[in-house]
């Protein structure tokens, strides 16, 4: 493909070969029985790429997994384009050239293999769009250069490790968060036989109830995410007022440990407005975003919860006065990505997007820059039928 003007690229080269030439190469590979047998022998999907990173041949597994009707539907496309990555249109020159691609394991592995002529392997977190929904995958991407008919090509093998990564995340969440809370409950319970006054008993009992509620909520939250991913989550729509949600979170964090030393503001609304949604899922999503805001806000920093209203939507907005680095912004909402030190704890923002967009018919988005600071927004419809 010839561009009249060199397109902008933020990562890899933008040039593409013509579709006519791609089809000629595809025919050569299709007629080579050894190549066909090798690719079909791969246990996972396998692609052959040219130097412009375009698919010139693939095995039948790649056709099925890409949801294509035939091999011809993906020939000439790049990996993210063939599998409908949500960022594949983020740059004029397509997959591999946007700001997001610099953080993509597949794009990095392909670039490294091409430039250094070596085998390269990377984990890749990718969100694809299918039937109007975003689906997250974790892939192990392996790229091997090979020389064929006096030309350089690359075999791209992709193994779906989503189940392994999901299990790793759940195990880490369980053993970290749940174990920590259970330890606190055990510690408080062991104190009860040692105290003498009724005031101390009442105080410890209060902490014990609070900790056990946290433990219960952590277990329920993890079960909800698992059910949501398995598409078995039951949503219970009902009428709730926007004011009641704001008041709940005002009370919840007014004396919370996370809010100590910080300026926490809840802006209430004047009108009594009702929406139809699942209160539990909405509240859990808002709480996730608030916790993140508290955790990243320094002492005397500001966290603010406020609602914005139009004819069709209500947005619950969580503001903090920090700014997210560009590199982190590009990876937010990926299931396996976390800004925390603990590897595999990246379910907070991912779960918010999953629950709101796939179950409450809403949207989750954010802005983070010098002018606005950081604002995460959960937008839900004002009116939904009770029998959704």
Would you give an account of this structure?
The chain is α+β, with helices and mostly antiparallel strands and 388 residues long. It has 3 domains: 142 residues, Beta-Lactamase (2-Layer Sandwich), CATH 3.30.450; 66 residues; 144 residues, Heat Shock Protein 90, CATH 3.30.565. The protein has 11 helices and 12 strands. The strands form 3 sheets. Strands 2-1-5-4-3 form a 5-stranded antiparallel sheet. The two termini are 47 Å apart. About 2% of the residues have low confidence.
Main sheet specs: 5 strands, antiparallel
At the first level of CATH, the class of the largest domain is: Alpha Beta
Mean pLDDT: 88
Question: In percent, how much strand structure appears in the residues?
Answer: 15-25%
**Number of structurally distinct domains:** 3
Separate helix tally? 11
Structural class, judged by helices and strands? Answer: alpha+beta
Question: Percentage of helical residues?
Answer: 25-40%
Order of helices and strands: HHEEHHHEEEHHEHEEHEEHHEE
């Amino acid at each position: 493909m010839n561009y009249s003007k060199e397109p902008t690229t933020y990562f890899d080269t933008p040039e593409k070969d013509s579709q006519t030439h791609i089809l000629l190469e595809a025919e050569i590979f299709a007629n080579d029985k050894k190549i066909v047998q090798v690719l079909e022998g791969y246990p996972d999907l396998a692609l052959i790429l040219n130097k412009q990173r375009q698919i010139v041949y693939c095995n039948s597994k790649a056709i099925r997994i890409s949801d294509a009707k035939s091999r011809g539907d993906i020939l000439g496309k790049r990996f993210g384009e063939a599998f409908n990555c949500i960022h594949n249109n983020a740059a004029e020159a397509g997959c591999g050239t946007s700001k997001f691609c610099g953080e993509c394991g597949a794009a990095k592995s392909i670039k490294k293999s091409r430039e250094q002529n070596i085998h390269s392997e990377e984990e890749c977190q990718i969100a694809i769009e299918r039937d109007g929904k975003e689906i997250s995958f974790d892939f192990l991407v392996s790229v091997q250069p090979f020389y064929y008919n006096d030309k350089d090509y690359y075999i791209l093998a992709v193994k779906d490790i989503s189940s392994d990564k999901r299990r790793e995340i759940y195990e880490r969440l369980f053993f970290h968060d749940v174990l920590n809370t259970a330890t606190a409950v055990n510690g408080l319970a062991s104190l009860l036989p040692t105290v003498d006054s009724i005031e101390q008993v009442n105080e410890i009992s209060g902490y014990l109830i609070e900790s056990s509620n946290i433990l219960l909520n952590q277990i329920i939250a993890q079960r909800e995410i698992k059910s949501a991913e398995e598409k078995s989550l039951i949503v219970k729509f009902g009428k709730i007022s926007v004011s009641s949600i704001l008041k709940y979170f005002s009370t919840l964090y007014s004396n919370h440990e996370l809010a100590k030393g910080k300026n926490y503001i809840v802006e209430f609304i004047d009108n009594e407005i009702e929406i139809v949604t699942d209160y539990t899922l909405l509240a859990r999503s808002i709480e996730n975003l608030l916790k993140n805001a508290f955790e990243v806000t320094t002492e005397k920093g500001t966290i603010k919860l406020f609602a914005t209203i139009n004819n069709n939507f209500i947005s619950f907005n969580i503001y903090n006065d920090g700014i997210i680095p560009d590199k982190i912004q590009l990876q937010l909402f990926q299931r396996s990505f976390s800004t925390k030190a603990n590897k595999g704890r990246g379910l907070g923002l991912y779960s918010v997007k999953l629950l709101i967009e796939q179950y409450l018919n809403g949207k989750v988005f954010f802005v983070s820059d010098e002018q606005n600071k950081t604002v995460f927004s959960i937008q839900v419809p004002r009116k939904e039928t009770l029998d959704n």
